From TrEMBL:
This is Anti-sigma factor antagonist. Belongs to the anti-sigma-factor antagonist family. It comes from the Bacteria. InterPro entries: Anti-sigma_ant, STAS_dom, STAS_dom_sf. GO terms for molecular function: anti-sigma factor antagonist activity. NCBIfam families: ant_ant_sig (TIGR00377). It holds the Pfam family STAS. Signal peptide: none annotated. Residues 1-110 form the STAS domain.
Length: 110
């Protein structure tokens, strides 16, 4: 999995490309933890190029949501492919994360 990082105002945008599973979830976890440790608290995760997410990936996202919510921050998701969104629906994560069609829509939440 590759992660492209950019920043728009106070929001960190992470564009994920590939598969978010047990072998790659540590990459995202480190990126998020480093950003949180650096004082960042607003994130958009763009899943436009994310092909697959496993329970290990969901765990990292849940951890990020708990940490950001605890400091008054937020994680929003954008551009989910239908099969990835189904995983979020089944896992009940659509109640935890705002899910937007575009990065621009997600940016309006901050």
């Amino acid at each position: 999995m590759k992660i492209q990082e950019s920043k728009s105002g106070s929001v960190i945008i992470l564009e994920l490309n590939g598969r978010l599973d047990a072998s790659t979830s540590g990459i995202l976890e480190k990126k998020l933890m480093d950003s949180l440790d650096g004082g960042e608290k607003f994130f958009i995760l763009d899943f436009n190029q994310l092909d697959y997410i496993s329970s290990a990936g969901l765990r990292v996202l849940l951890m990020a949501a708990k940490k950001t919510n605890g400091i008054g921050g937020k994680v929003a998701l954008s551009c989910l492919k239908e099969h990835v969104k189904e995983v979020f629906d089944i896992a009940g994560f659509t109640a935890i994360f705002p899910i937007c069609f575009t990065q621009e829509d997600a940016a309006k939440l901050f």
